[in-house]
Amino acid sequence: MPTAAPLSRVNDFVIRFANVNGSGSASANEMFARAVMRMGVPVSPRNIFPSNIQGLPTWYEVRVTEAGHMGARGGTDFMVAMNPQTFDKDIAGIEPGGYLLYDSTKPYPKSKFRDDITVIGVPLTAICNREYTDPRQRQLFKNIIYLGVMSALLDMDVKVIEQLIGEQYKGKDKLIEPNIKALHIGRDYATLNLECPIGLKVRKADKVGDRIFVEGNAAAALGAVYGGATVCAWYPITPSSSLADAFTRHCARLRVDAETGKTKYAIIQAEDELASIGMVIGAGWNGARAFTATSGPGISLMQEFIGLAYFAEIPAVLFDVQRAGPSTGMPTRTQQCDIISCAYASHGDTKHVLLFPEDPTESFEFGAVAFDLADRLQTPVFVMLDLDIGMNHHLCRPFKWDDAAVYDRGKVMTAEELEAGKDFGRYLDVDGDGIPYRTYPGTHPTKGSFFTRGTSRDRYAKYTEEGAPYVDNMQRLLRKFETAKDIVPKPLTATSGKPTKYGVIYYGSTAPSMDEAIHMIEAQGHALDRMRVRAFPFHSSVNSFVADHDFVFVVEQNRDAQLRSLIVNECDIDPVRLVPVLHYDGTPITARFIAKAIGEHLEKLKVKPSKVTS
In whole angstroms, what is the distance from residue 614 CA to residue 611 CA? Predict the structure, then answer.
């Protein structure tokens, strides 16, 4: 018996699968997550994979959470250790009282194991060697066999997994029966040779509701379709490539003329990132709604073109699926580290609109609204995803769309208005909001044309290098940025329910863990108001939130506190009042990390009453 009492929980634990990349384990591991969800229990899975094709370690973590916590928790309650290279590290990460499932075909010395966990050995390789002669079958079916073992250990409904196998191999019916057989080989071994079930159990519930299970990149791509995008120019880069791939699939289904069969979109895989953003800007100049999908290194290469779109005022949307940098960094790890580089992208004085979705649902919503914002503001708009949102499945609210919605194309002067003699200056601010009127190419045979350039010009697009027109233009661009503050998605706030001098600001994929951490912090006896920032430029409520508190924690996933720097710079706030809480090892931030970091700081702020002496 282990020295620590074995964990005993129902629908509340973390399972981690440790495999070798390229071993075919991904589909089996995801099938486990889907099976739990089919039993009515929410899951929050995360795939941790290397940037090479195969051979290196890979992990797949599934948080089983009837309470619906969608952020990473931290720690492992049940480890499925299928990779000898990481065996020691995997065992070290198990919580006291947790469980280890491993392939016992090759005996391990007792020193390999911990005495505070329950060790479960199954001779998986020996079973596969007995059942199959083909080496590839032995590897692939091993994954299904351990899935069968787990179904017995966790007291799962095996029929749910059988149904998923049938769905996965629909159209390849010859594969269904062998996979179901492998599933029961594992389940039968467990029921005959192991104590089943263990302390961790999956019990049927009704907590999933109408939520959907989707990756953020696929959601953002669908948002682009609904937002009216017809042009995508991109260059492959992890972790954004699946966004362009998903847009291709969505367009093939939704952007084909039903009568003629002709496509109503253009998707171009460019020769590099520079070409891709150039194509997007060209399409935007012509009146199309266009975007690119990239990551930090791509943003670095696009800087000059981004500056052109900002200065010439051409709509463009950029989906930045952030990964760990700088340089190549960790291509398959997550961070929020492109905030500064996107906010001020290009040389000279530039400021760009950034949107911070928290999950796939907001990725869909912001993916659509980004095109309205780009057209209305006549400027590049960045949708700041990250690998955690983009490449992992999330259980989230269903997407909603108003079929009566009309695209906001902004200030576009028509041929009729030009013919009527309306004054047209491409960079003329007639409304005081900093946004000029534009025309589409070919609007009128003789009126409304202008020369688009990246050099300085006056209000009527006439070239000039005089200081006064340049300053006039740059100040107008600032007015436009001020206008943007009230039309981008506003921050969401929540109060602690009791008076407090402390607050927290967070954004993007940090949100699910923050939502859980706040309960942990309250359990420690601390009260904390919170604000989730959803866009840059910052709404005036950000200033008010900071002003209402003595200290505000800023939680983010990068080394240099980039959002905090933006708040200090743009809101003119004393940096002492903003306390950074930073996590940047490439793994998703956890509720435990946030609660510990903030809790320790709040404990230090407690003032003990001094003793009164007579």
Answer: 10
